Structure formats: structure tokens, C-alpha cells
Amino acid sequence: MRKKFLFIFAIGVMVMGCNFLVPTQTPAQDDTDTASSNDGVAARLEELGGTVCEENPDFTCVTIQVPLNHFDAANTETLDVVFAVSPATGERFGMFVQAFPGGPGGEGISTGGLSWFSEGILEHYDIVYFDQRGIGLSNPLTCPSAYEADFMDYLNESDQAGEEGYDTPEEQQKAIEDSRKYAEDCVAEMGIDPAKLAFFGTDQVAEDIESFRQAIGDDKFMLYGVSYGTAVAQTYAAAYPDHLSGMVLDGTLDLTLSGENGSLSQEKAFDKVLVTTLEACNADELCSADMGGDAVEVYDKIAKQISEVPLAYEFPLPSGEQVKRTFTFNQWEYNAAYQMYSLGGRMMYLRALAAANRGDFIPMARLAYQNLTVDPATFEYIGDDTFSDTMFLSVLCTDDSFYSGTKEEKIAQTIAAGQASNGTVPRLDGSVYTGLSCAFWPSSPEEVVTAEPLVAEGVTTFVLNATLDPATPFEEGKAVFERLADGYHFYVEGGRHSIYGWGYDCPDKYITDFMVDGKLPTEREMVCEDWGTDVIRAYEPLIKENTGDYANVLETFFAIDSAIQLQPEYFYGYFIEDVAVSCPFGGSFTFGSSDAGEAYTFNNCAYVKDFVLTGSGGYDYETGIMTFDTQVDGAKEGTLVYTNNFTDGAISVTGEYGGETINLSR
Question: Are 94 and 234 in a shared domain?
Fold first, then answer.
């Protein structure tokens, strides 16, 4: 089973500032709004049995009972859906409901937060997240064993025909059989009547939001959708435009596309972003130097090699043990796609690609372990506790039709489409093979599903977009905007997947000013120029192997500092539990949380061959200072303390090294 790449990652913080038209009424203060006061909302949450959310204590969780099938009054079966509310801190204008984080399959409550909203929004709006039906706290449906078996089989599968893709009858039959087996095993493991899976699609999720609105008692509210959440938001807006005071669509899907056309659209977008990323490396002096040639050629060379013969490598564990692994083309493609979501992710991928080109495949493997959510020590599947792989496929297959006709005809059309986009050119493909799984999924529509273009008459809608969004292609958001009766389109030239809440005035302050003061932008469509046009985050070169490659011991420490921050386990870490990783030339580095922020341990750790560190360190979040307190062995011996003040950028090292007193700073 091939897994589609439609996900959304964490959102950042917010900043203010921009110019707008003269004020009108705020969206929640029009004549039809019946939003209650802060005290009234608190009382209503208490009436609904609200309690502090265990997974997110900044919010009050309320459970509402909703029909299993909102569209059949004769069906009296119900299920529980959980919403999380953080009430407005001041004069209340209404609710700001988040269809977040994406997927489908992402939990909203455990991953939701407040830090990316402006003070004005927090003052006047209740922030609301929810776990949609079938996910998290809302009647979860899971088949972890079936998914793990299927996913790990996919990751370890290699193409015996010598060309990537299901290009032989044997490979095609195996793909079909794998899809059938997963569907049967997953439904059996869930223990649900297969007929009920049809009631866990996006149309029912939109009705759950309406049930919550009625339970709270507001006439209108603001709605935000991101990534797959834009499908939820658009579906609600199509059904209940009169109950929206405004809407934000961030990383927007075009629901008028069929399942197969949406997949093909996404394949092209991922490929476009990858090629643009590789070309950005060629245009960057440091990156092109590390790559030792044309990054596009480097990618294609390694991809071709792996597609023909999976790459064998040894992965170093913190214990010093080397374990034998194999990197398949499926792992290669999956890993590359996941790194395309953000500018930082693209830069990290280029560094790993440059290292692989030099014969060091470990950085690429480290990235893959993060993206595949497998244990680096055992290569066993770990998964993501905040994401439902089960509901990813179930919702996708319930919502979309992949081709038409009988099951056999749908399968044949899917295989044919997959053949048309196989291999490394386009370099990231395979999403259309989701149609194989949907052909066997019980809730997959028998007839072709079509959606009317969203007009949303009377609903001011902000469509947010980026030209280098791989998961929700720019063209789809543009098409949605052009059909809206009252739409505004803010987009970034370059950029990433989702652009709201990252600390840029555009689009954040346009949305804040509309919600708080009723001010509208002067133009219907504009480029968010404050983002710039970058394709990748500023490239940071690979660490050099020897102390002789650096001007002095301070520069050596700074290179190690940078290498640690750019190690995937640290770069993508959450610093809850201690994580131990092997150092490139032996020993181990351990990091985790501390009372002050982060704690480090070096155990004969060599990021540079002849500069072996043993000692401790940490990062104090309050002062912004990172410290390494170490004994050094190798080319010389000594005792050195290195500090990096992230507040002012100053770095220093003091102590004894090679029999000399060291006191360096810059």
C-alpha cells in the first residue's frame, strides 16, 4: 500500500503590523450574532460537563453526543465527539474553531495551542480545537497491527524488475493483494461493522461542528482550516454559510478534483518542489560545494542506484555496535517527500544528500528514521501517537472516488495511471496508487463523487497559499479563491506548506485586523513579500573531519554545536525523554529535558575525528545560553568550556588545551 503525503506540521508564533482599510463591524459583531459573554460561555462549558483537557491543560474539554449518521433521522445510534475550548480573555466576539492539524488523521486537541494567535484574537475569541470522529478522544478507530505489517512490508519492498514501479504482472498482483489484505485485516482489527465506516467521512465531521455550534449557542463563528482541514472547512461552509462570520483556508485543497486527479496534482507538486530545492542548492555556493556537482544529477544518480539495487549500509548505535540495514527506493521516495514541507526540512535534506554523495549515508538514514517513525536501534515501527494512520486512509477513501466502474475496473485504471507516473522522473510519485487501497475499502463510494465549487456567498474567506507547497498545490488554492463570492488570496513566492501563524505580518495581521476590527485588505490578491522568495533555509555546510580544518578550537566547537543542532534527532526532537545518538566518529551524545531547558551528555563523542569530548552541557531557555563543559582527547588534551549565547550571538571557549590557556570569543 502506498501512503499519500497529505500532512500538516506544527504551526509557529505570531507577529503584528500592516496597513488596512477603514474599520467596519467586526465579523462577530454583526446584527445576527448572538455570541454570549465570557461568563455565559464558562457557564455553558460547565453545563456541558467541561473538564480540563488532560492532553492540553490550557483548554477545557467538552464531550457532545452526536448522531452516527447526521443525514438519517431514523438511525438513532450516536457517538461522542470531544471539543477543546480556551475562552476569550476579554470582551468576547465569538468562537474561532480550528479544523486542525490535517491529515486526515491528525489529532486536534493534543497538538493544538495558543502561541500562534495574536493577543487581539485571544482577547476576543474562544479558541476551539476538536478531535474529529474516529480520532484521538472521539471514538477512535485504529488497526495498529494491520497498519504496521502493511507499512513495514512497503518500506522493505524492493523492485526485482530493475525499474521502480509496479511494472510487471507479478508486482501488480502483489500490490493488489497487499491492498486487499490490509483492508480486510484493518477492518477486522477495528472490530467495526464495515457499513458504519461510511459515517466517518468529512461530511459527517462538518455536521459535528454544527452540533457543537448549536450546543454552545452562538449564531456565527470564525472557522480556520489547514491542509486536510480545508476540506472540513469548505464542507461546513457549503452546508452552513449563514453560520460563518468568516473563514481562513490555509494550504487549500480543491474539492472539485476527483481522488485520482487530486493525487496526480499532489505528485506534480512534490516533484516540482524537489527539483526547485535541488536547483536552489546549485545556486548556493556552500551547498553546491558540499554537493560536489549538480544536485539534480546527484539525486538522480543515487535514486537510480537504489531503485535498481537497494543500498546496504551499517548504522552506528550509541553503544558502538554497527547494525546492518538496507535502504529501499520506497524509503528513499518517502523520506524525500517528507523533507519538502518546509524550508528547514529542504535544507536538512540537501545536507543529507551531500553526505550521501560523499559516501556517508548515515545522515540520510537518520532523517528517514524520523520520517518513517521507526526505532533507529531496531528498525521497528513506533508510529505517531497524535496521528491515526487508520483514519488517514479511511477518510480519504470515504470522501473520494478513485476512478469509476467495478472494483476490477477501478484497479485496472489505478495501475495504468501509476504506470504513467512511475519511477524517478517525476522523482516523487506513487500517490495515485492509493486508489488500490480505496478499491477494497468498505466505505469507498461505488459511484463517482463530485463536489460543487464553493462560492460561500456572504462569507469573507481568506485563502492562504505558497507557490512551493508540495502537499496542497498552489494551483488548487488559486482555483478555490477564484470561485469565491468574497475571497482574498494571500500567497508566498516559494514558501512552505501552510503560512498562517509563522510570525509574518502577511497574512497574520490581515486576519487579526478583520477578526478584531472588521478591517479588510485593500486588494483581493497579494503576495506576502515579508516572507521573501527563499526556497530553502540558509544552507549550513557539512562538518569537516579534522581539527586542522578549523582556524582554532573555538571554530571547532562552533562546528560541533551546529552539527548537533542539525542532527535530525535533535532538530526534530521534543526533548521529553532522553535520546542517545552515536557521534560520527565514535562515542555517543545524549540530550533531553532539564529544569532549565535541555541537558546534554558527551561520552567519548567525536563529531570531529581528533576532538573527542566527554562531559556535560545544556541549554538554558531563560538565559538563551548553551554550554558544553568537557574533557577533550585526540590531537591534543584539555579541559574546555564552550558557551553560545543565542540572545546576542556571542560564542566563547575557555580552559586548558594542549598545555596552553585558552580564552577565545567572537
Answer: yes
